[in-house]
Design a protein that fits this description.
By secondary structure, this protein is of the alpha/beta class. It contains nine helices and ten strands.
């Protein structure tokens, strides 16, 4: 069943290069259209400035599109009541790149994970404590970490806490915007494996936004390649290094010997 439909999304940012000149519109997204099925992981890749993160923010409702529609479970995200928006917020969550800045540094990990439960659920304190422990277990963290502050844990642990917070309300879709790019290769591998396990166990759908074609091809069912605000290719995961736009992206990000460009067997 179709979970998300993105229809002809456009985004223009106005700017004024000189005081007395007319305001111009800089297109960040142009006629972006795609759909996402329940339980699917869709990768969106592109170089910096291609519009992929802007698209993610529009799907999340952080920014409004200049034109087009976002339909989540058949509901237009930008033509809804406040009650519908609250229901959508339960089912649509995000994990961003900078794990530490996603937290209130004055809150403990317990308070961070408890916050969505306080906002959306009617749990007792005992039920919230049990739920936080369950969430930490889901992301393979010890329950004693709940007493710590974000500054007292590692970057990999911080990102696991972010994932746990995204899981708190049992969402149907999580948007992962450069969620592993700030981590080293070993941690990236562990986080991707964790995400795959959670997707299978909880029947989640992901939109995995990244500039890393290799990591994206490992976790995604199919991949969209963005360039200058447009979708230029849609490819299957096992064909990630066979298409012109994706090869151009890979070579621009991770230069290598010409022979290696057609024989990329490194995996997560």
């Amino acid at each position: 069943m179709t979970l998300l439909k993105v229809k002809n999304i456009e985004k223009h940012y106005a700017h004024r290069p000189f005081i007395f000149k007319r305001k111009l519109a800089a297109p960040a997204l142009q006629k972006v259209t795609f759909s996402l099925q329940e339980g699917e992981c869709l990768g969106i890749v592109g170089q910096s400035g291609s519009g992929k993160s802007t698209l993610g923010r529009i799907i999340l409702g952080i920014e409004r599109p200049t034109d087009g529609e976002i339909l989540f479970q058949g509901v237009n995200l930008y033509d809804t009541t406040s009650q519908q928006k609250k229901l959508i917020r339960r089912d649509l969550q995000a994990v961003f790149q900078n794990s530490y800045h996603s937290f209130n540094p004055k809150q403990t990990i317990f308070q961070i994970l408890e916050e969505p439960l306080l906002n959306f659920e009617h749990f007792s304190k005992t039920e919230r404590q049990h739920k936080v422990k369950e969430l930490l277990n889901c992301v393979e963290l010890e329950s004693k970490i709940a007493e710590k502050y974000p500054s007292q844990i590692s970057g990999g642990q911080q990102q696991r806490v972010n994932i746990a917070r995204a899981l708190a309300l049992h969402p149907k879709l999580i948007i992962l915007d450069e969620a592993i790019s700030s981590l080293d290769m070993i941690l990236q591998k562990h986080i991707i494996q964790l995400l795959q396990t959670l997707q299978k166990d909880l029947k989640l759908a992901y939109i995995f936004i990244s500039h890393d074609l290799q990591a994206t091809s490992f976790i995604s069912d199919r991949i969209l390649v963005m360039q200058d605000g447009q979708l230029v290719e849609e490819i299957k995961k096992d064909e990630a290094f066979k298409h012109p736009a994706s090869l151009e992206l890979y070579n621009a990000i991770l230069p290598c010997h010409p022979r290696e460009r057609t024989n990329n067997n490194t995996s997560y």
